Amino acid sequence: MKVPEAQPFLRFIAPIIIKLNNVVQNLTITGLHHIPHDGPAIVIANHTVHADSLILGEAIIKSGRAPHFVAGSDFFAVPGVAFILRGVNAIKVTRGTSAAKDSLDGIRDILDAGGIVLLFPEGGLTHDPQLWPMRGKTGLARLMATHPDVPIIPCAHWGNERLLNPWNYAIDWKHMGRHTRTHVVFGPALNLSVSEDPDYAELTAVTGKIIDHLEHMLVPLRQANPLDFTVQQRERRWDCRLDGDPMNDDYELNRALRQARKNRRRRRWRKITAR
């Protein structure tokens, strides 16, 4: 498949990723007509596993556009991942620091050049134990304030959570194949606006409405494909500042268990070699 308006590395790697996606899952994409054929645009989506960028990137490419990706600065420290991110000219965002606002300048440059950007308004993987969208970051609302005419295209997806465990990043080989259904749905552009000089309260309110919209789109997808997760929505959205971070807790627990298994194997090997 030809990748339009893309840099050479993306033209090279995109067909490989698309072939891989078609092998490991049954991907269904609807609503591509909502993505503008030209001009700047921002596609937003819920974020459950790191593989989300692969399936959403494929969907945007099938609409006739070449997406620009955004990644946290920590991913640029991983050698293999950093090579790919630099190859596709991914925009580096420094999360959780005072420099996060300045990181939006790279996204603004892409929009000014007429490009399309893929964003996750949660600012990273959801930490909600049931994988519902968590409390969002205000970065998207800040972009809406400086670029009010850029359409915001919402997208909900569900299904690839069975391929890559969102808690310990383990690949679930038994769910690999065309029997695993992943649905990607694009909706019409959001009808939201932000003032030119918004305060934090306005930014937070708009961000909440954006996450509400994504969650509303996600409900029917989860009802049709429960994947062992409840489809019951919570009374309020998960907020790591109030509810903690179960993802990190679970990750640390799994890392401790893996280390314990390694230690047991080493002790057994020492006993064998000591005989």
UniProtKB/TrEMBL annotation:
Keywords: Acyltransferase, Transferase. Residues 41-160 form the Phospholipid/glycerol acyltransferase domain. One of its GO terms (molecular function) is 1-acylglycerol-3-phosphate O-acyltransferase activity. Pfam families: Acyltransferase. CDD domains: LPLAT_AGPAT-like. Signal peptide: none annotated. One of its GO terms (biological process) is phosphatidic acid biosynthetic process. SUPFAM superfamilies: Glycerol-3-phosphate (1)-acyltransferase. InterPro entries: Plipid/glycerol_acylTrfase. PANTHER family: 1-ACYL-SN-GLYCEROL-3-PHOSPHATE ACYLTRANSFERASE. This is 1-acyl-sn-glycerol-3-phosphate acyltransferase.
